[in-house]
């Protein structure tokens, strides 16, 4: 089946990546997982190795970027909110806080060296004045 036949217009190829997942807990058995990807890159534009490298880089950036920051700074993995809407709202608020910090940092509007230090300095007055800009 082509991407167009699957309703993914503008995409040129499907990619299946088979990988072994080895849990840190040695009492659990390794498992084989298959990840499926779709791309608008034509098959003659990139080698297989270049496509795999792009996939690895994407996941490295995701895991070491946003997910890592949300887990370390906000202890997201310890959050026990079970309500789906509530959990989604917390994710939105965490992402908003990261985005506001990044904007302030890029604009030179904060002296904080980390998101955690910046969060400790925030008050309603600070947030309100930032939102009015």
Beta-strand share of residues: 5-15%
Largest sheet report = 2 strands, antiparallel
For the CA atoms, what is the radius of gyration? 20 Å
The ordered string of helix (H) and strand (E) elements is EEHHHH
Beta strands, count: 2
**Separate helix tally:** 4
Mass-distribution shape: extended
Strand arrangement, major sheet: 1-2
Structural domains: how many: 2
The poorly predicted ranges are none
Helix content: 40-55%
Class by alpha and beta content: alpha+beta
End-to-end gap: 50 Å
Mean pLDDT over the residues? 84
What does this structure look like?
The chain is α+β, with helices and mostly antiparallel strands and 133 residues long. It has helices at 48-74, 84-106, 115-120, 124-132, and strands at 13-21, 31-39. The protein is extended and about 55 Å long.
Task: Give a quick rundown of the structure.
This protein has helices at residues 48-74, 84-106, 115-120, 124-132, and strands at residues 13-21, 31-39. It has 133 residues and is of the alpha+beta class. The termini are far apart.
């Amino acid at each position: 089946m082509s991407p167009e036949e699957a309703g993914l217009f503008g995409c040129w190829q499907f990619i299946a990546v088979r990988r072994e997942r080895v849990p840190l807990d040695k009492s659990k058995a390794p498992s084989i997982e298959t990840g499926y990807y779709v791309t608008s890159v034509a098959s003659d534009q990139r080698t297989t190795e270049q496509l795999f490298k792009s996939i690895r880089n994407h996941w490295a950036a995701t895991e070491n970027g946003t997910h890592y920051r949300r887990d370390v700074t906000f202890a997201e993995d310890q959050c026990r909110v079970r309500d789906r809407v509530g959990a989604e709202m917390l994710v939105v608020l965490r992402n908003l806080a990261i985005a506001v910090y990044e904007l302030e940092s890029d604009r030179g509007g904060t002296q904080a060296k980390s998101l955690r230090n910046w969060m400790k300095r925030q008050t309603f007055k600070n947030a309100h004045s930032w939102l009015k800009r």
